[in-house]
């Protein structure tokens, strides 16, 4: 009998010990008391990690005895550390309240898919460049967003002028006309207005950049064959914020800018103002500028009205004036003589007025009306030739978002009017062109299960485009589908595809290189059509308490039919025509990110692109496109104190338009920033190994009076050092 009693006591003690080993913790938002899903809870000094479920609770099946330290982490919240002695009796889960971090890091919400979902729950593949990286890149180029895009995997900034540094962007190796640039969802940078687009978008007021790669016409209509880049502005909060920047570089660039914002219950505002000055810069001593003499200015005020909790009205007006003069440096410096007369000037005025009205019909549903009017005037001049044009663009979009159980439904319609007029030209040679588009669209995002989410959409566009030579009306049905599957907390995959189209335009990377000289108006040219898609696999894990590793492997394919190609007749005039032979772009991107103790971050990105045009003779590879690119960046950051980074980029050989191949090259950069309270000081050494095209061959050919220029395939200005001061109030 005594042995039985001892055995029962042993069993009871074992059960009791087992119950004490099961430990529950519930994590909530400190302010709203809402349960937080996906919070990481780890036991310090071990590999034991748990994540909170939808109810905010995480469960540890066994806890080591003795004193244990728990670390609770979640993006956008201050980390908490709790020390407890185990075994520990629990009658209810331990409740932890997380406070929002001072930096207000929030869950990444994307707006380019129109649903305003978190990026983790969006079936469409969206890449985001967040505020921290934007802030870092704006230290390098406060004047424009070229550096932000240049250093992103799968995106290339293509310089189109040797003397004035004009540039466009390419996604997946396709010409810049196939990428649609948006500012807060407004398409104000298409056709003629795209010529100086990325050079006239300052980054100082941006909160996020969203990139959708692959056909996206279902979302935004014409021009989104290669993808969409949406620059998202910051919105005011009750706590006022004022940022100022002063920057100076060794190549003669000076930037002075400021951004401020604030709101109360009924009213808010934001204001961006920046001025950029560039002295003419000739690094190789050939008497021709690698960087033009530049003066540009941007001011962008926005007013926010909140009549009630359901209604928001935003009114904005962005104005940019830019004057750029490159060419023979003696001419640029006003020393014209018989031996020095070549120049290239670009003078532009861009004004965009926007109105954005949104009304919550209930807690989950939203009616939104957006309208914009864009005026863009540009003049280009070289000796004995001048091109002047004005582009008017009007855009109106009405949409309704309806959320029901596990589904988001969007219905909408839009109207687009785009009109280009060439000035000071004979009527039969004027490149005038008008496009009018009416579109209807619908989209469904369906959370079929917790793991499987599906997004499908359809757009129908009716397009009428014309000039004095011809008029055409076409209809486009543009279906799209994307799916997200979450295998577990570490693995997920997205796949999607759709159709796209691009209406005819004279304004491409090729025609930009010769300032549209001897270019005939469009005649009987039809719209281009495309299909394609992307597929990717994502992996993210934590190793111990110090390491976080994430990887993304993406594959892409796009085919363009009825593509427009530039031709030249026997008289030397250029014109566009359609070809029945397709353009294909396929490849993959590999991205990896490693974080150690939140202080060290290593980024690596590799892009393989094979883009071919079947209409090209002999060599079918798309020109000025490297098959292989590698991006590397190592960053050390101590929050609100100090950060420094080292970057390296490899670019493979490229085919030029003369069928020759370029050399592969590396470029390296270094940056550092130190924070002293509200003031920070930064320095940058971009391309400090001085990679530049003139080291391989002179870019300028012929005489000073009648020069010709090679295709631009790498840096022309060489190394750049800059330093500045930022003030945050």
Give your account of this protein's structure:
It is a single chain. The chain is mostly beta strands. Helices cover 7% and strands 54% of the residues. It has a 22-stranded antiparallel β-barrel. The protein is globular and about 90 Å long. The N terminus is likely disordered.
Distance between the termini: 79 Å
What percent of residues adopt helix (DSSP H or I)? under 10%
Give the CATH class of the largest domain: Mainly Beta
* Sheet with the most strands, sense and barrel status: 22 strands, antiparallel, barrel
CATH fold field value of the largest domain: Maltoporin, Chain A
Task: Give a nutshell description of this structure.
With 729 residues, the chain is mostly beta strands.
List keywords for this structure.
41 strands; Immunoglobulin-like; Maltoporin, Chain A; 6 helices; 3 domains; 22-stranded antiparallel β-barrel; four-stranded antiparallel sheet; 729 residues; globular; disordered N terminus; mainly beta; Ferric Hydroxamate Uptake Protein, Chain A, domain 1
Write the layout of secondary structure elements.
Layout: H1 2-21, E1 23-29, E2 40-43, E3 49-51, E4 57-60, E5 66-73, E6 80-86, E7 94-98, E8 109-110, E9 117-118, E10 127-130, H2 131-140, H3 146-150, E11 155-159, E12 167-171, E13 179-183, E14 206-213, H4 217-220, E15 227-233, E16 241-249, E17 253-263, E18 267-278, E19 293-308, E20 311-327, H5 329-332, E21 343-360, E22 366-382, E23 385-404, E24 407-423, E25 433-447, E26 452-466, E27 471-486, E28 491-502, H6 509-513, E29 528-543, E30 547-561, E31 564-568, E32 574-578, E33 583-596, E34 600-613, E35 628-638, E36 642-651, E37 665-676, E38 679-686, E39 700-701, E40 708-709, E41 720-728
Parallel strand pairs: 1-7, 13-15
Antiparallel strand pairs: 1-4, 2-3, 2-5, 5-6, 8-9, 10-14, 11-12, 14-15, 16-17, 16-41, 17-18, 18-19, 19-20, 20-21, 21-22, 22-23, 23-24, 24-25, 25-26, 26-27, 27-28, 28-29, 29-30, 30-33, 31-32, 33-34, 34-35, 35-36, 36-37, 37-38, 38-41, 39-40
